[in-house]
Design brief:
Rossmann fold; alpha/beta; nine-stranded mixed beta sheet; single chain; 250 residues; two-stranded antiparallel sheet
């Protein structure tokens, strides 16, 4: 089984994010970058399936040469090889990213694609669904459990009302939710081996993909600061205030 795992380079979720003064984007000065946490979960799940069923795990990233650092982390975790699509710093929306992944899939022909349900920087939650549409492959999103049996993926997915179990034929697209697993740490031997593992770079112009964005971000703004609350002396005053705000049904 060959499993392809797209990963995105995002800011560390514990970093303090600031916007540029003109609102054109996020100020990346002194920001630490990591694999998008949901994508790291996808890498871990792919490795577990390889350990159980055999095969190969290929990690794909779409960005600039700096993104190689995150590919190397996935290789140190145990992935077999990496692919970087070098964008040359071009802005890409989710539609363009999905179309680029389609081109890589046509070349690699994986049996399964596992990816994070969303990236923590833009929270778009679109690429997995677009990918399924363009490939005409079945999909199972928000996976909290994944089993492979008889060329089928059995997925427990999280929905508003609880849990839902779906079964899809392979090849398929699976997007990972937070509770799918706990990613492993890269071991020292794994880090040393990662330096020797194959890592291929593809120039984005070689893929022949329409990169014109369907969505353009014109400006970002921070939310307004919340006003300070008030303290009340006792329960009676609390009830009185809630009545004033019409927060009580009586």
């Amino acid at each position: 089984m060959k499993i392809l795992v797209p990963v995105k380079r995002t800011h560390d979720p514990y970093s303090k994010i600031k916007l540029k003064s003109d609102g054109s984007g996020v100020d990346m000065t002194n920001i630490k970058f990591v694999i998008n946490p949901f994508d790291e979960i996808a890498v871990e799940e792919a490795l577990r399936k390889k350990e159980k069923h055999g095969g190969e795990v290929v990690v794909l990233s779409i960005g600039t040469p700096e993104w190689v650092d995150q590919i190397r982390v996935a290789l140190a975790m145990g992935a077999d090889r990496g692919i970087l699509v070098d964008t040359g710093g071009k802005y890409l929306d989710q539609d363009a990213i999905a179309r680029i992944i389609v081109k890589v899939i046509e070349e690699e022909k994986p049996d399964l694609v596992i990816m994070g349900k969303q990236a923590i920087d833009d929270d778009s939650n679109q690429v997995g669904q677009l990918l399924s549409e363009y490939l005409n492959w079945p999909q199972a999103t928000f996976a909290s459990k994944l089993d492979i049996q008889d060329n089928k993926a059995i997925v427990v997915r999280e929905i508003d009302g609880g849990l839902e179990t779906v079964e899809v034929e392979l090849p398929a697209i699976i997007t990972a939710d937070l509770r799918l697993n706990q990613p492993r740490y890269a071991s020292l031997p794994g880090i040393m081996k990662a330096k020797q593992k194959p890592l291929k770079t593809i120039k984005i112009d070689e893929l022949g993909v329409d990169l014109n964005p369907k969505i353009v971000i014109e400006k970002l703004e921070t939310p307004p600061e919340r006003k300070a609350g008030i303290k009340v002396k006792d329960v009676d005053e609390l009830i009185s205030k809630l009545k004033e705000l019409k927060a009580l049904p009586f």
